[in-house]
């Protein structure tokens, strides 16, 4: 039995049993607790959930997208990754350039209206094709604003300078491993209210070195437990592996600290189904040796020994 995955399942049970019923920005409604923490010993295995299938290729391509400093969804679509589409699509259908069918509240309407769902899929397919083929359209509607990659790699200062937080942390880990300043933040108070498609949920992370091992703690201000958190766990655990590989350390722990940890009210059935399933053993992650972090491609990162239950679909709140 995986101690790592059990923590996640226990968090689900805790929120279902003790969570406060709250409204939210999407008007979906949640059950929420404030302040939770999970600790994942990466020596036990790679903490990709086994009680439902989680697509590692989506996690890998998204993380490399962040690491490259990219904020446009074209790269993701080129790797068949659709997890950021809705936020970019929302910008297009709410613009004056959009002339198609009314897409208001498309996330919820597509779930309950089969006719509308067909229209939505048609418009999304048009949108994705234009992002891939039309450079001008891609530049205007594919970019999500100064989200994670921009903040990690190209933080803009008030003096007009640029800070590469990720490279600076890597250099600091190599030259001063005992520092308490190995921090990367995506929460930029100047950019949050301006042009971000979605203010950063995983807001700040800090590395820590002890006994030749690299650990990382993430503070996540808002945590969609069913859909988002499984990705966040795997993504930041992968980041620990990648950074450890870059600086010549073994992997230690990933500590996941959550602010508002919530289950959406339209995910309750899915969570109950997942909780009814037995866990499998955790897989392992393999990384191509001899390549810089910044030169890695999706083909350089492979998952070995992953056995899981089938995926469980659920609507995303946009």
TrEMBL record:
Catalyses which reaction(s): dUMP + (6R)-5,10-methylene-5,6,7,8-tetrahydrofolate = 7,8-dihydrofolate + dTMP
Metabolic or biological pathway, per its Swiss-Prot or TrEMBL entry: Pyrimidine metabolism; dTTP biosynthesis
EC top class, as a word: transferase
Keywords from the UniProt entry: Cytoplasm, Methyltransferase, Nucleotide biosynthesis, Transferase
GO CC term (a single one): cytosol
Residues that coordinate or bind dUMP: 25, 180-181, 221-224, 232, 262-264
Location, primary (coarse class): cytoplasm
Subcellular compartments: Cytoplasm
Active-site feature positions: 201
Segments forming domain Thymidylate synthase/dCMP hydroxymethylase: 6-318
UniProt cross-references to PROSITE patterns, sorted A to Z: THYMIDYLATE_SYNTHASE
Stretches assigned to coiled coil: none
GO biological process: one example: methylation
Any one GO MF annotation of this record: thymidylate synthase activity
EC number(s) reported in the record: 2.1.1.45
Top-level taxon in the UniProt lineage: Bacteria
InterPro entries: Thymidate_synth/dCMP_Mease, Thymidate_synth/dCMP_Mease_dom, Thymidate_synth/dCMP_Mease_sf, Thymidylate_synthase, Thymidylate_synthase_AS
Binding positions ((6R)-5,10-methylene-5,6,7,8-tetrahydrofolate): 55, 224, 317
Similarity field: Belongs to the thymidylate synthase family. Bacterial-type ThyA subfamily.
Assembly mode: Homodimer.
The protein's role, per its UniProt record: Catalyzes the reductive methylation of 2'-deoxyuridine-5'-monophosphate (dUMP) to 2'-deoxythymidine-5'-monophosphate (dTMP) while utilizing 5,10-methylenetetrahydrofolate (mTHF) as the methyl donor and reductant in the reaction, yielding dihydrofolate (DHF) as a by-product. This enzymatic reaction provides an intracellular de novo source of dTMP, an essential precursor for DNA biosynthesis.
NCBIfam families: PRK01827.1-2, thym_sym
Protein name per the record: Thymidylate synthase
Record organism: Halolactibacillus halophilus
